[in-house]
Give the backbone structure.
Amino acid sequence: MMRFLSLSVAVLLLAGSARGQFVRTEVTLPDIPPYKTLMCDFHTHTVFSDGNVWPTVRVDEAWSQGYDAIAVTDHIEYQPHREYIPIQYNASYEIARPRGEREGLIVIRGCEVTRVMPPGHLNAIFIEDASLIQTKRIGEMFAHDHRRGDYLDSIDHHHQDYLLALEEAVRQHGFVFWNHPGWAPQAKDGIKLWDVHRELIAKGWIRGIEVANHAEWYPEAFQWCLDYHLALLGNSDVHETEQIYERKARIARRPATLVFARERSEAGIREALDSARTAVWFNDMVLGPEKLLRPLAAAAIAVTGPFFVDGEGTRYYSVRNATDLPLTLTDTASGEQLDLLPRSSVVTKAAKEVKARSFSVKNFLVGPSDTLAVRLPFD
Ligand SMILES: [Zn+2]
Ligand SMILES: [Zn+2]
């Protein structure tokens, strides 16, 4: 009886510790030396603007999904909870940051400058004090309790008040990027790059553009990033819990910005953004400049063999993808398709005289309609 009891206690203790453990799903991404590949989301909301979760929930979700870093970017000008939660522009960061430190998730201070188009919505991250990005005019509007529509419809068309907000973000050495340029409510006549954006890009104030946001991606924005050498961003813009967001948006995973950083740190991420060393992971697609996607694909794909040679000298090889990025390869000569799902391998053959084969990686886009071409050795 005694033995039985102590066994039960031991089983209970084990079960208890398993229940109490918070588990992170590790995401394996290929590094492209000398850079580490980091998975980041630079656009998230909390109850401190129009989000529906407490800042620590944002951190827990991102950590458990294998992220390296997030930015909390509550709206400056849109504060629909202010009747219940006072406007505190730095609160989401101040609450999220200590949680991130204890989990090993990098949390970056940010905010969303929220105006009509143009310029639309812009995120400023790596800022020092979000409260200073609220302009005097916006402060006065909140003081007089104008409705959201009042400031969105009036101020910006007649005054260039947004420039004051962006100027302050830049003064704080913030990294500013343009959010969801094709978001339907602000792009009724279709997505376009306005003169305002060209000017902000020329001044070095806009340094990146969201090529993917929430459940959509924008081919035009991809081309602008390549043309102007801007960082490509892919962010969730999550407002609900992660689970509700993924169900509402009907996506398998939230969009991520892949950052190729010299080190896994805030400074490392900042340097990579400044150098436009980023790519976007959106559903099954990876979008980015060819000079980054080529080594990324090369680091993910391994051809091993031959492990068998048949009577005609045809050699059999294993093509392996040990990462979490999917790769869909099509042989440009034969049309054979190799579906390299995450953490999988397939078998393929090479005729006696073949030393290498050329493939198009269908889901790695190096331009809005250009797929990455790779050549793999079969020797
Ligand atoms: Zn927005
Ligand atoms: Zn947003």
